[in-house]
Amino acid sequence: MRAVSINSNEHLAEAAFTSQSGIFDEIYSGNTIVNYKRERVRQHVLKYLAQGSSVLELNSGTGEDAIFFAQNGHTVHATDISTGMQLQLAQKVREAGVQTSVSNELCSYTQLAQLKNKGPYDLIFSNFAGLNCTNELDKVLASFSDLLKPNGLITLVILPTFCLWETLLIFKGKFKTAFRRFFSGKGTTAHIEGVYFKCWYYNPSFIVKRLKDDFDLLSLEGLCTIVPPSYIEGFAEKHPAAYKFLQEKEDKLKSRWPWKYVGDYYILSMRKK
User: Fold this and answer.
1) 25-28 long-range Cβ contacts below 8 angstroms, 24+ apart
2) Element (H, E) at 176
3) HSE-up of 206 (CA within 13 Å, CB side)?
4) Following CA atoms 12, 222, 225, 235 in sequence, which dihedral angle do they give, to the nearest 10 degrees?
5) How far is Cα 45 from Cα 150, in angstroms, rounded to an integer?
6) Strand 75-80 vs strand 188-192: parallel, antiparallel, or unpaired?
7) Exposure pattern of 126-142 as b/e (b: 16+ CB <10 Å)?
8) Peptide bond preceding 229: is omega within 30 degrees of 0, i.e. cis?
């Protein structure tokens, strides 16, 4: 793998996720709500993605989504800044037998101009808040148009500046978590495997405003608006009936106001003009 030049916060994030890469799937694969989120994102993408499409995935992690899309007839170029994640992805791709459909490259999404495989692609995809690890999201967004075919798509899964469930944690005395998004203009400190780095929160309007000249909004859904976030551990297992009820409500209301704006994440898709 070639080395990439990244800023100090990205370097810290790379170190954190590389440290976690060997146990990442073990931590999250058995989480019911994580699996619900992943299925929601995938079904959202498949609504718009034509068969046999080419996908550029940013912050691809261990390759769970890349392998899924490959197994569903698409080709994926999976990028990440974490060497550990890229190694895990390459191993999983071999084990899944999709080497001809998934390629990978060590590359920061803030430096997509240096990408070796520039496409153009049918879809640029970023899942589970990888893009929240930069305060240069405007720079990332500006690079998208040149990497996409005409009528190409983007689907981004982002943490917004307000989460209803998170704010309600004030009633459990978790004040730091409840208010962390309210005072995050200069970044909020996150830590994984003992490594500290910063993340930033972005509302859908931030993305739409910066892409409106070249892209049209297709869809906006809230994710974990009514279903609790996955970090409320064991909720689905402890309260299966309540979880099923909340899931049904979210699946019905996900695209309606105000629910599409108050989730732990939102799923945003736009089409290139």
Assistant:
1) 25/62, 25/64, 25/88, 28/230
2) helix 175-179
3) 20
4) -60
5) 18
6) unpaired
7) bbbbbbbbbbbbeebbe
8) no
Q: Which amino acid is at 54?
A: S
pLDDT in tens, 65-109: 999 999 999 999 999 999 999 999 999 999 999 999 999 999 999
Strand partners, 269: 155, 219
pLDDT per position as a tens digit, 133-191? 999 999 999 999 999 999 999 999 999 999 999 999 999 999 999 999 998 888 999 98
Q: Give one word for 227, left, alpha or beta, with left for phi > 0 and alpha for psi -120 to 50.
A: beta
The pairing of strands 121-126 and 195-199 is: unpaired
> Tokens for 153?
């798509």
Spell out the residues 6+ positions from residue 170 whose beta carbon is closer than 8 angstroms to its own: 178, 179
**How far is the CA of 33 from the CAs of 19, 41, 78, 219, 257, in angstroms?**
24, 12, 24, 22, 22
